[in-house]
Amino acid sequence: MRRHLLYLSGTALLQAALSLAAFGEERAGNHIADKASPPLHEPENATLPRPLLKTAFRSTVGSIIRHPLTTYHLGITLSRRRGATLFDNNLPTLQAAQLFSEQAPRPGSPEFELHLDRAGLPDRIPGELNYHIGGREFFTAFEKELAEANLSIDSQVYIFDNDDIGVRYANLLRARAEEIPVRIIFDDLGSTMAHGKHPSSDLPQDFIQPADIGAYLIEGKSNVLLRETLNPWLITDHTKLHIFDRKVAFLGGMNLGRESRYEWHDLMVSVKGPVVDALSSDYDQTWRRNGPLGDFALFLRQKDIQLEEEPGTPLRLLRTDILTARNEIVLAMQQAIRCARDRVWIETPYFSSDIIETELKAAATRGVDVRVILPGKANHQIMNAGNSVTARNLLSAGVRVYQYPEMTHLKAMVCDGWATVGSANLDTISLYINRELNVSFSESKLVSELIDRVFEPDFQTSSPLAIDDIDLKFAPLIESITDQL
Fold first, then answer.
1. Which CATH architecture does the domain made up of 29-85+125-299 adopt?
2. Which fold has domain 93-123+317-482?
3. 127: which of 38, 52, 290, 395 is 20 to 30 A away, CA to CA?
4. What is the pTM (predicted TM-score) of this model?
5. pLDDT digit string, tens, across residues 47-95
């Protein structure tokens, strides 16, 4: 036990440093956009933003008190994952397995979906899916559902910002909470670190930022029910999920704030049908997990989901969740890349995963059209350097790499006739540590629409990279650091 505790202490320090270094993942956008509408009403006063050290202390001590079992389990699992990452792609035995054959099921085919079933991934659930590309499309649809909800609103984000956009939606949610139940979950660490940053597109001159968006949501006579995700070992919940009346749900990459509304290129999808029942059950479990019962909530019996037989597109919900050892997103991606014959197209803001990089290089070697879109400048220096290292490695193997002119925060992958979108980046934190939510599908119209509305326009907008364009000093050091992010 003593050895474990010493090991966990070292892991905690490493995780703290890496989490702080990687936080740029959700912050500090890169270009100027038009200003937002002013908030419905301003906070009465503003003070210094919620302190980061207090949040780190609350996450550590609060987690030990409320979640002693899971905190210990997470620490052990995290330390093992960090150790494994040090060796990923550095030993011959860990190179990508050459599993491709002419008999491999083509991604998008019924045989491939059965292949994923046999790999232990969650069952597919029927539903209806629509894309919302960019802040205007998503927030317009989000406001419509928020205004029309009659029974309930359940919302979860990584960052609920305290800028003018965050306050606008805090006001709208507070107003709806006077009429129907409104539950909100946001990540304590993610939102705290966002509160101290000034958006690049500037705030309205007369806007006063509240010090703490959580306190603002529940102050006064507010009926909003709020739970903040604690961060044992500084592990975060990166999920973005909004459910209205348990009939319509949104998931993807956008937070509630100015960056998502005006500054970054990003994607959300909305779903309807039986798949929303599964998402609602997932939200309920997250709500209990972050409640006052803490670990005792794990012993509560979960209500079985009764999914009705309805027509719709088969959708597969995928999770990364270190607590429950769910690595479904990276597993599905690996299988799709390995089985691809014609095309693997990816857009992601952060790419440092050696595992996915190795799979892509193997696919390019066997003649697959492999293309990757990265931001022209990621919103954090170390992540931008990590992207450059990955781009250099991919280009050397024949992969085509493109540079989006601004900050793209969009996460999407197409392998032949199969696709996945959601919150997960192509880095160690997203694929193995933080909590993430993706959806995958093989419906040809949806895959074609993703290609037509996202990939084709973004290829045209982006500039192709060449190895000579990348001049990196200390590349091995950068790669060893970003491999842990």
1. 2-Layer Sandwich (3.30)
2. Endonuclease; Chain A (3.30.870)
3. 290
4. 0.87
5. 456 666 777 777 777 777 777 877 887 788 777 776 666 565 455 444 4
